[in-house]
Amino acid sequence: MTMFKLPELPYAYNALEPVMDEATLHFHHDKHHATYTANLNKALESHPELAEKSIRYLIAHLNLLPEDIRGAVRNNGGGYFNHALFWDMMAPERSTSFGGPVAGQIEKDFGSFEKFKKKFSAAAVSQFGSGWAWLVWNKDHLEVLSTANQDNPLTEGKKPLLALDVWEHAYYLQYQNRRPDFVEAFFWIINWDYVNELFEDAKKSRKCGAAE
Ligand code: MN
Fold it and tell me: N or C: which terminal CB in the chain sees fewer CB atoms within 10 Å?
């Protein structure tokens, strides 16, 4: 039986300072992400036939899951997957830079980096309550969108390339109610190397979600 494991952070807890401080990362990873992981495993216990499925498969095929666990997988599987992506999408300041194939695509689909940044930031700031802002690959172009709670665009067949958690637990210790400041600062710690990797993978399978 597959038990999903809480992934370790790919950097030290203080590596994203001053944008994201050590205390925030400890609570966010060790408590919140750990709880989603435990609750996902608990939900799957009653369905051993799903034991070999990947988290990408589960999230991409929520509609095929048994009804009694669909909600739990949507919320806790989403929480598990979203945070695993989120940690990898960040890196210490100046360790990567905007460039590579995804930069060209951003300029093509949004007009410029500044226009993309404005759109992504608006999605993050205006998401009412808890949720996420996303840059996604939708078959042949990029889109910016936001989702509520722990929903992931993969459920709609769109491939996530960049995600920003705007639940209050992601920033409140450090930024209190100043979500726009948190969103602005996030741009300093985007791991563009990883975004490019996800972009290359996303382009390979045009039928989004099918092969996950
Ligand atoms: Mn979170």
Answer: N
